[in-house]
Amino acid sequence: MAALQGFEEINITKPIATMTMTVMQSRIRFNKATATALGYPAYVKVLINEKTKQVALEVCTGRETNAVKFSKPEGKQTASVSITEDALVTTVAKLFTFESAPEGEVSYQLVNGKLLNAKAAVFTAADAKAGTMKRRGRKKSTN
Q1: Using one digit for the tens of pLDDT, what is the confidence trace for 32-65?
Q2: Cβ-based neighbours of 91, under 8 Å, separated by 6 or more
Q3: Rounded to the nearest 10 degrees, how much is the dihedral formed by the CA atoms of 74, 67, 130, 101?
Q4: Residue 71, exposed/middle/buried by CB under 10 A (0-12, 13-18, 19+)?
Q5: Which pTM value belongs to this model?
Q6: Neighbours of 46 (CB within 10 A)
Q7: Which of 2, 23, 3, 9 is CA-nearest to residue 128?
Q8: Count of helix runs (H) and strand runs (E) in the chain
């Protein structure tokens, strides 16, 4: 339409929130934004580059070797995604240094990620921020 010449369409898609990976000695947690950015994949492969100290997530099918259950479908994934596979957690945790945490707390490393494409994200250990948080789950009895 000639009357609208020179106008540009405004992009109304929401920007992707910051993807984060929280590494603890017992689990790896990815925030919901990571699942969203990757399209809520049911399975991923967790890749590691020990030279560059990076961890990558690659979307895959459940039939592939080393596939790890990841996200629920869109609308059903209401919280972060935790991976507790021992071999995986141990291998990734080697990239980080954990400080001792006060009793009742857990030491963690938080890393922001970068989306490579719709099927992969990378997290660089050198960019990690250390911290501690209170333990979640059942409280120990004080009897």
Answers
A1: 999 999 999 999 999 999 999 999 999 999 999 9
A2: 48
A3: 110
A4: buried
A5: 0.81
A6: 21
A7: 23
A8: 2, 9
